[in-house]
């Protein structure tokens, strides 16, 4: 299993920006699709963004497309999520995730059941 540690959450006003970072250790990082999910109070955990194991493809939920940007650095074993134009509805705990299977790329059809490792979560709160 991969060990994932997130950082970078916080409180921001609507329209603001945050950068979330996830540092990975354990498995060979470059073999696995990485990404982010989020979970708001009373709601199910949902897909936000992913970057394929090759780094050549990125995927986003419709709700964040055009506002969030995911990237990975395979030399540092990190995956970042830049959150721009934040809205109150983006408020949630954001979780870094690593796919359970090597070389798998499910695009935006990536579900919590596909995840092999989770970070501890970082809170993002957007005030109106």
Q: Care to describe what's here?
A:
This protein has strands at about 5, 10-15, 20-25, 35-40, 45-50, 60, 70-75, 80-85, 90-100, 115-120, 120-125. The chain is an all-beta fold and about 130 residues long. The strands form 2 sheets. Strands 2, 4, 5, 6, 9, 10 and 11 form a 7-stranded mixed beta sheet that branches. A hairpin with a 6-residue loop joins strand 5 and strand 6 (about 60). It is globular, with a radius of gyration of 13 Å. The chain starts with a strand and ends with a strand. The mean pLDDT is about 95.
Topology:
Layout: E1 3-7, E2 10-13, E3 18-25, E4 34-39, E5 46-51, E6 58-60, E7 68-73, E8 78-83, E9 92-99, E10 115-118, E11 122-127
Parallel strand pairs: 2-11
Antiparallel strand pairs: 1-3, 3-8, 4-5, 4-9, 5-6, 7-8, 9-10, 9-11
